[in-house]
């Protein structure tokens, strides 16, 4: 193909954006706008709009203090999303259904997507009345059992990066942030979350982590128990936690992971 033909199909804006992403991927630390421009042999004004667009779409992050740019995990997530979610669902659905049948309660499996909780699998309760959690729904990570569980078992750097980008967390006072961090430490030490639902009265959520950071798989399994009146067959909270832990081990075994204590 001639050079004229090649030029005909060029997309300058796309090439500029890809060049920025590739450049940042090769840098050991965050880069300023002028450093990126120098590295790409362009002027700072040439890349200003592209940096703003990449930041707006979540591909890069600009530090609020230094104003330097670094890549986020969005590209990694997009490249692994399909295989990761399908692998997780395949490993989890049967154990989840067994757990729901045992404790007569619905369960759902969640992961973090940016600064939200994304539900990727759901197991129905055999009871005629139960809480329904739709797959694909996004929830607040700061106020849900799933979100707190996921955050508590992240490594410190990833957790700080995610919380730094969360506008709701940034609006908290220093005391509120400190209390929230203490709660996450308690959850990690305890190994599970138990709390009233932040979305509706009469529901108690129980959540345990699935996987761990070194494996590249971090998810959580949650049961939303609807409180009922005078039901002799209603499982105790201890029964639910035990069922979740058993289910957790089965899922992690299916994934080929060594279960965490």
UniProtKB/TrEMBL annotation:
Enumerate the InterPro entries for this protein.
GAF-like_dom_sf (IPR029016), HTH_MetabolicPath_Reg (IPR050707), Tscrpt_reg_IclR_C (IPR014757), Tscrpt_reg_IclR_N (IPR005471), WH-like_DNA-bd_sf (IPR036388), WH_DNA-bd_sf (IPR036390)
GO BP annotations of the record are: negative regulation of DNA-templated transcription
Record organism: Sphingobacterium haloxyli
Which residues are in the IclR-ED domain?
Answer: 74-257
Q: Which PROSITE patterns match?
A: HTH_ICLR, ICLR_ED
Q: What is this protein called?
A: IclR family transcriptional regulator
Keyword annotations from UniProtKB, A to Z: DNA-binding, Transcription, Transcription regulation
Pfam families reported in the protein's UniProt record = HTH_IclR, IclR_C
List, in alphabetical order, the Gene Ontology terms for molecular function in this entry. Answer: DNA binding; DNA-binding transcription factor activity
């Amino acid at each position: 193909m001639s050079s004229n033909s090649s030029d005909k199909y060029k997309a300058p804006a796309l090439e500029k954006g890809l060049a920025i992403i590739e450049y940042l991927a090769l840098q050991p630390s965050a880069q300023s706008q002028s450093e990126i421009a120098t590295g790409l042999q362009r002027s700072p004004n040439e890349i200003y709009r592209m940096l703003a667009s990449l930041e707006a779409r979540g591909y890069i992050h600009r530090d609020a203090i230094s104003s330097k740019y670094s890549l986020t995990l969005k590209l990694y997530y997009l490249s692994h999303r399909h295989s990761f979610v399908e692998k997780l669902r395949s490993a989890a659905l049967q154990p989840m259904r067994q757990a729901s049948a045992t404790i007569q309660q619905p369960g759902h499996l969640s992961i973090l997507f940016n600064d939200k909780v994304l539900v990727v699998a759901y197991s129905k309760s055999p009871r005629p009345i139960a809480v329904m959690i739709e797959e694909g729904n996004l929830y607040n990570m700061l106020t849900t059992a799933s979100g707190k569980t996921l955050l508590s078992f992240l490594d410190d750097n990833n957790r700080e990066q995610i919380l730094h980008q969360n506008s709701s967390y940034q609006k908290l006072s220093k005391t509120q942030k400190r209390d929230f961090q203490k709660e996450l430490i308690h959850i990690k030490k305890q190994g599970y979350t138990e709390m009233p639902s932040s979305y509706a009265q009469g529901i108690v959520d129980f959540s345990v982590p699935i996987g761990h950071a070194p494996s590249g798989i971090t998810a959580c399994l949650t049961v939303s128990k609807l409180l009922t009146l005078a039901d002799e067959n209603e499982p105790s909270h201890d029964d639910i936690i035990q069922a979740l832990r058993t289910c957790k081990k089965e899922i992690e075994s299916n994934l080929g992971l060594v279960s965490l204590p």
